[in-house]
Amino acid sequence: MTDSSIDLGDNLVFRPLRRDDYARNYMGLLSQLTEVGQVTGEQYERRFDMMRSTPNTYYICVVEDVVKTKIVATITLVYEQKFIRGTSARGRVEDLVVDTDYRGKKLSKLLLDVVCQLSKLLGCYKVSLECKDHLKKHYEQFGFVAEAGQNHLCRRFV
Ligand code: 16G
Questions:
Q1: The pTM is what?
Q2: What is the number of the ligand 1 atom nearest to the C-alpha of 129?
Q3: How far is the CA of 130 from the centre of ligand 1 (A)?
Q4: What's the count of helices (H) and strands (E) in the chain, helices before strands?
Q5: pLDDT in tens, 81-95
Q6: I want to staple 91 with a disulfide (CB 3.0 to 4.6 A). Which of 76, 111, 127, 153 is the partner?
Q7: pLDDT at position 13, please?
Q8: Which of 27, 96, 131, 152 maximizes ligand 1 atoms within 8 Å of its Cβ, making it the mutation to test the pocket?
Q9: Residue whose CA is at the smallest distance from ligand 1 atom 17
Q10: 75 CB less than 6 Å from ligand 1?
């Protein structure tokens, strides 16, 4: 386990996405969220490198089942720098998915809590997400609000 990994018990470890996670079925997990297309290991690595070379922008967290060596949950926080609100920043929650076999373990809450804390630490004035209509209720229970006149759900910090 690396320093930035947290043991969640139950053979599950929370950590940042790694360059070799293609082999741990990261793309397979994403296919439970949407169409992923044909993505080779090389393409995955190229995209990973591109994201890593854009500093302080992409924060991708995963939960790995270390016995099955399989990624079972993931979330991405995109840090968007703004001119508005005194050159503030906005956090965007993207590509949150929990493997169907691992639902009911509150992994989604854990991932959202981490990302909200991180957004606050990074100085974001809010963190927002877009989701399928049937998932709105799911996100509302974690404090995300569909504000009148806005087309996304968000949590505001200031
Ligand atoms: C959901 C995701 C979004 C993802 C999209 C993919 C969350 C909170 N929202 O809206 O991040 O990119 O689905 O669906 O995870 P699409 O392929 O139809 O755009």
A1: 0.96
A2: 8
A3: 7
A4: 5, 8
A5: 999 999 999 999 999
A6: 127
A7: 98
A8: 131
A9: 34
A10: no
